[in-house]
């Protein structure tokens, strides 16, 4: 219907690093930095000295026709929340984890960098999900159904 292959309609896009980290010379190798895994593609928590702590989250976007575009994003969180998240990450209490923070990746075609967001664990086998936001644009992204044309901002598979 939109001219793209049907395999392009249920997409997952994972950001390797938060934009503020990506835009620094040393990136995640800066002295004093910590990642929950040495490979940032696998890390779910990170602390970058002088920038922020971050947690990975899923930002699902409903597309018409019952399809989904899901971004694996980084969320800037408070240092106390990083400690709290790390303390429950692999424990039963993880399923009750709720966090607030700010999107640390630009989400096209909406932008949304630094939009406030609320996170909750919806599936204990996944990173937390972006569930709501006081930002009107991000709230619309999370709650409305979008046309497949939003896929045009993504690189082809």
Describe this structure in words.
The structure is a single chain. This protein has 157 residues and is of the alpha+beta class. It has one domain (6-146). It has helices at residues 19-22, 79-88, 136-143; strands spanning 11-14, 34-35, 45-48, 52-63, 67-76, 98-103, 116-120, 129-132, 145-146. β3 (45-48) and β4 form a beta hairpin. The chain is globular and about 45 Å long. InterPro entries: DUF2199 (IPR018697).
Features:
single chain; 9 strands; globular; disordered N terminus; 14% helix; 157 residues; nine-stranded mixed β-sheet
Domain module tally: 1
Structural class: alpha+beta
Low-confidence stretches: 1-6
User: If helices are DSSP runs of H or I spanning 4 or more residues, what is the number of helices?
Assistant: 3
Please state the average pLDDT score: 88
State the end-to-end distance.
Answer: 18 Å
Order of helices and strands: EHEEEEHEEEHE
Helix coverage percent: 10-25%
For the biggest sheet, the summary is: 9 strands, mixed
Rg: 16 Å
Shape: globular
Number of strands: 9
Q: How much beta, percentage-wise? A: 25-35%
